[in-house]
């Protein structure tokens, strides 16, 4: 997490750095800072957003090289003194990642007379580099020497008072790109930050050090040998969904789902599975957060269409479990960003074991996409809201298409089943659109939940996964405590939570009669039942539910309609409570730390 950016461009860089930093705020937004080389450094840091830097930019910020940072706090509170850049004896550093041995390094540095100004793990880096400089090392060599004692993950950009026309960048474990353009050189966590400032970028690999100047960029490994990295175009085209009259990007992105689904389907339709994937004897799907819940909705579709067992794994657990991997396993990683640290760690593990890896990924330039054997893309476009919305439904679609492609390759899909599912897929954009039209009813439910300040989501099959996604969306956007259970699990303990008026939201789909019985059980204990149900089951639920939302679609379509419904409920609950819908507290869109 955290976004770093650096720029050298032959004119005053401060304003451009802050613009670029704003584009990186999805990576964290609890504090921000900037350092510009001039004579000496001009440094400014604030708690809060990058835009908060602007009033503090005065004539001392006229320098033509600088670095900036937007932070997601790991060590030390989100206060200005913990914001980056950290500056020590003419060395300014911005860092993304975690230095795992920072406590030992800090103790050694303090013993040598260093004094620290922050509680961050990152601050050891400029101290180490400053020591190397004091011992006579040139900038790139000083950074290399510091890197040799750092354990953990880092992408760093370093500015030196003694070399104000240079930036040194190093990477181990955290993503970072270097970029060039007409008389400009830059570094950023994401090339999208550099649109308009540079034309080409290269992703650094672990163990790379780059020296940037307006005259060019030299990339070498930690032993000083030059290395060649692939240069790609900075994509000017891929911006986000426009606000289109909505007050938040999250809401606009919910409305953008029909076209995102159409784009995704058009991209997937021509794709074929390589033999090594089609021959899978077991699929292991690995992901985090909403991506995991998208995978959970799709698990049974994959199993039913392809006749292959499909396991679902939380990336942070799987990476350390040392699970045996059976012959014929194919891994499917699901990620919007393609840079989630735990999912990337699992990707490395699968590569080491020579397991074919399919990446269902939204960011085409991400490391996960680069390192996969097969990219099975979602085309949601950039999501500017921190919460996954259009990326979630696109992931569900991509996974259905994956199951279908697998089934077709293995001959397990009958023509009748194929025709039915193709019809269902074709109808998904319109179903999402129709579900959105139920917003007034969903907003009333959100107000009720906000008043009760709790919610319990239930479902069966894909509905259980949707319940989990609904609870997650509500928690992260509104900060209301919400739980989700497979409906059959309720009486094994969670039913003790039910009190008079408890909101219980049932995502009714498969096995509706059993979910109906579970809804009756909570109603008998005073719960306020909300049914998110298709037309076929509506009459049965209308009898018992306080709120019965009759959604469009059945089967696959109904799951997508429920996704839109839980998204809208979460957005409205957040708005009622005055939350920042696009930038909820404590979150970041790219989770690049473990
Ligand atoms: C929730 C949300 C997160 C992400 C999770 C995984 O709305 O967005 O739970 O789904 O952090 O991120 P990706 O998909 O980028 O790997």
Which descriptors would you attach to this protein?
Glutamine Phosphoribosylpyrophosphate, subunit 1, domain 1, Rossmann fold, eight-stranded antiparallel sheet, six-stranded antiparallel sheet, 18 helices
Q: What CATH architecture label of the largest domain applies?
A: 4-Layer Sandwich
Catalogue the ligands. Answer: fructose -6-phosphate
Number of helices, counting only DSSP H or I runs of 4 residues or more:
18
Give the CATH topology of the largest domain: Glutamine Phosphoribosylpyrophosphate, subunit 1, domain 1
**Count of discrete domains:** 3
CATH class of the largest domain: Alpha Beta
Q: Share of helix among residues?
A: 25-40%
* Mean of pLDDT: 95
The radius of gyration is 25 Å
Major sheet: arrangement of strands = 3-2-4-1-10-9-11-14
Identify the overall geometry.
globular
Question: How do the strands and helices of this protein lay out in sequence?
Answer:
Layout: E1 3-8, H1 14-23, E2 31-38, E3 40-47, E4 65-71, E5 86-88, E6 91-99, H2 102-111, H3 124-134, H4 139-147, E7 152-160, E8 163-172, E9 177-181, E10 184-188, E11 200-203, E12 208-213, E13 216-221, E14 231-233, H5 249-255, H6 257-268, H7 275-278, E15 282-287, H8 289-306, E16 310-314, H9 315-321, E17 329-335, H10 341-352, E18 357-361, H11 367-371, E19 374-375, H12 390-410, H13 415-436, H14 439-452, E20 454-459, H15 462-478, E21 481-486, E22 503-507, H16 512-523, E23 528-534, H17 535-542, E24 547-551, H18 556-576
Parallel strand pairs: 15-16, 15-17, 17-18, 18-19, 20-21, 20-22, 22-23, 23-24
Antiparallel strand pairs: 1-4, 1-10, 2-3, 2-4, 5-6, 6-7, 7-8, 8-12, 9-10, 9-11, 11-14, 12-13
Helix pairs in contact: 3-4, 6-12, 6-13, 8-12, 8-15, 9-10, 13-18, 14-18, 15-18
The structure holds fructose -6-phosphate (F6R).
């Amino acid at each position: 997490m955290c976004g770093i950016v650096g720029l050298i461009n032959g004119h005053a860089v401060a304003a451009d750095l802050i613009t670029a930093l704003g584009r990186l705020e999805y990576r964290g937004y609890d504090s921000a800072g900037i350092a510009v080389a001039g004579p000496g450094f001009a440094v400014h840091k604030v708690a809060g957003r990058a835009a908060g830097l602007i009033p503090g930019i005065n004539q001392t910020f006229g320098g033509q090289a600088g670095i900036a940072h937007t932070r997601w706090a790991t060590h030390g509170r989100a206060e200005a003194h913990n914001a980056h850049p950290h500056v020590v004896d003419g060395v300014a550093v911005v860092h993304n990642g975690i230095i795992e041995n920072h406590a030992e390094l800090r103790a050694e540095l303090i013993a040598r007379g260093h004094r620290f100004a922050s509680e961050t793990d990152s601050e050891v880096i400029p101290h180490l580099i400053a020591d190397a400089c004091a011992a006579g090392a040139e900038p790139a060599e000083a950074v290399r020497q510091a890197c040799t004692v750092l354990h953990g993950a880092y992408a760093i950009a370093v500015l030196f008072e003694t070399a104000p026309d240079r930036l040194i960048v190093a990477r181990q474990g955290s993503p970072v790109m270097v970029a060039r353009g007409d008389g400009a050189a830059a570094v950023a966590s994401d090339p999208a930050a550099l649109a308009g400032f540079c034309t080409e970028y290269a992703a650094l690999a672990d163990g790379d050090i780059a020296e940037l100047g307006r005259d060019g960029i030299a990339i070498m490994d930690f032993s000083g040998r030059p290395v060649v990295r692939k240069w790609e175009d900075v994509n000017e085209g891929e911006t986000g969904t426009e606000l289109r009259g909505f007050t938040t990007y999250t809401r606009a992105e919910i409305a953008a789902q029909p076209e995102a689904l159409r784009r995704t389907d058009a991209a997937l339709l021509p794709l074929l599975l390589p033999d090594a994937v089609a021959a899978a004897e077991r699929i292991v799907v690995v992901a985090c957060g909403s991506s995991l819940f998208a995978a959970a909705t799709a698990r049974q579709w994959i199993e039913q269409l392809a006749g292959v067992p499909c396991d679902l794994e939380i990336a942070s657990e799987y990476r350390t479990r040392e699970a045996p991997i059976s012959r014929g396993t194919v891994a499917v990683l699901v990620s919007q960003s393609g840079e989630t640290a735990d999912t990337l760690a699992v990707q490395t593990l699968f590569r080491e074991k020579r397991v074919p890896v399919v990446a269902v990924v939204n960011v085409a330039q991400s490391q996960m996409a680069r390192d996969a054997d097969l990219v099975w893309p979602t085309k949601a476009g950039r999501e500017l809201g921190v919460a996954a919305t259009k990326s979630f439904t696109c992931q569900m679609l991509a996974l259905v298409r994956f199951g279908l492609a697998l089934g077709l390759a293995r001959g397990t899909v009958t023509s009748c089943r194929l025709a039915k599912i193709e019809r269902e897929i074709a109808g998904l954009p319109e179903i999402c659109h129709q579900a959105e039209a139920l917003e007034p009813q969903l907003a009333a439910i959100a107000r009720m939940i906000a008043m009760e300040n709790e919610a319990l989501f239930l479902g069966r099959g894909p509905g259980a996964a949707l319940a989990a996604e609904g609870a997650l969306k509500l928690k992260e956007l509104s900060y209301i405590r919400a739980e989700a259970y497979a409906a059959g699990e309720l009486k094994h303990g969670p039913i003790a939570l039910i009190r008079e008026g408890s909101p219980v939201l049932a995502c009714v789909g498969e096995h509706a009669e059993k979910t109906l019985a579970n809804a009756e059980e909570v109603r008998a204990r005073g719960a306020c039942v909300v049914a998110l149900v298709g037309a076929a089951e509506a009459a049965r639920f209308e009898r018992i539910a306080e709120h019965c939302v009759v959604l469009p679609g059945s089967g696959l379509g109904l799951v997508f309609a429920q996704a839109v419904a839980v998204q809208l409920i979460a957005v409205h609950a957040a708005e009622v409570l005055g939350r920042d819908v696009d930038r909820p507290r404590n979150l970041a869109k790219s989770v690049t730390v473990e």
